Amino acid sequence: MICLRVMMAIILLLGLCGAPGQPRAAERRQLVVVTSFPDSVYLPFKRAFEAAYADVELRMINRKTSAAISYIQDRASPRADLFWASAPDAFEVLKTSGELMKLGPGLRPDPAAIHGYPLHDPGGYYAGFAISGYGLMWNRAYLAARGLPPPKNWDDLRRGLYRNHIGITAPSRSGTTHLIVEMLLQSKGWDEGWRALLEIGGNLATVTARSYGVPDGVERGRFGIGLVIDFFGLRSKAVGHPVEFRYPDGVMFLPANIALVKGGRHAAEARLFIAYLLSDAGQKLLFRTDISRLPVKRAAYRRAPKGYPNPFTLPREASAPMFDIELSRQRYHLVNTLFDQLITFRLHELKEAWALVHRAEARLGSEDAPPQLKADLKRARGLLETMPVTGPRSKNPAFADLFTRHKPGFTVSEAQSRLEAAWKSAAIRRYDEAAQIAESVLERLDRAQEPPQP
Question: How far apart are CA 390 and CA 383, in angstroms?
Answer without folding.
Answer: 15
